[in-house]
Amino acid sequence: MFKPLVLILLYIFSIVAKEEDNMDKKKSEENSKMLRQEKVEKLKLVFSGIQTIGIILLVISVFLAYRSNIDANKWKRYDTASDLLRRFEQFENFSYKLKNYFKELYGNYPKNYTPLSIDDYKKIDEQDGIVKINGTDYDAPLIRKNLLGIYNYFEDVAYAYNKGLADKELIDKSLKHLILRIDRIFSNYREAVKCRYEGKQIDSWPPFTELMDKWKNKD
After folding, report:
1. SS3 label, residue 138
2. Which of 93, 150, 164, 182 is the most buried (most CB within 10 A)?
3. Within 10 Å of residue 135's Cβ, how many Cβ atoms?
4. Residue 83 contacts by C-beta under 8 Å, 6 or more apart in sequence?
5. Is the alpha carbon torsion for 156, 161, 165, 166 positive or negative?
């Protein structure tokens, strides 16, 4: 009589045990799945952190390269300006040879100072020998040679300045005042040289003219 009951109970217990096993398996699978998901999320965070660090390092390296390039260019411009200043002795040599004809080169302008006119410089530019202007004898070849040397030097300064190849601040402080002063004396010579070409106005020193316009308009 008890045997069937026992069998039934055993069967029920076996079913319950299977269910518990199944539940345990499901819980174990769910736990494993959750663990896997947690690992995946952690790996994602790690990779995301690595990517972020990589981006930051890239930005830093680009910035450092940019700064390095700026510094290198700055020193190049400074070196170019310094070279132009070292070549200033060229101007001194040319101007020294003109001092007997243009005393204002090495002193203050006299009262009511009037530079030689364009026509006067045309005579100097066209003649080989001594040219008499306002009762003074001018050695035309000597004046032409040295004025060409002065303006060719100023042209180099102007080209480097206009193109940003030389440090502008250094040139402004060291040469600007001198160049403006000298051009006040000889600007009519530049205008006379333009008339060499059968009536065509051709500027022999266009970068220098551009620089003069900048400085005069700025002042």
Report:
1. strand
2. 150
3. 5
4. none
5. positive
Number of helical H runs and strand E runs in the chain: 7, 2
CA of 17: how far to CAs of 9, 144, 180, in Å? 12, 119, 107
Cα–Cα dist 91/87, whole Å: 8
**Cα four-point dihedral sign 116, 118, 122, 125:** positive
Question: What gap in Å lies between CA 192 and CA 116, rounded to an integer?
Answer: 11
Per-run averaged pLDDT (10 residues), the chain, 219 residues: 56 59 62 71 67 64 54 73 88 92 84 89 92 92 95 95 93 93 93 78 90 85
Residue 184 in contact with residue 115, Cβ under 8 Å?
A: yes
Helix H, strand E, coil C: the string for 89-107 is HHHHHHHHCCCCCCHHHHC
What's the start-to-end Cα distance of the chain, in Å? 126
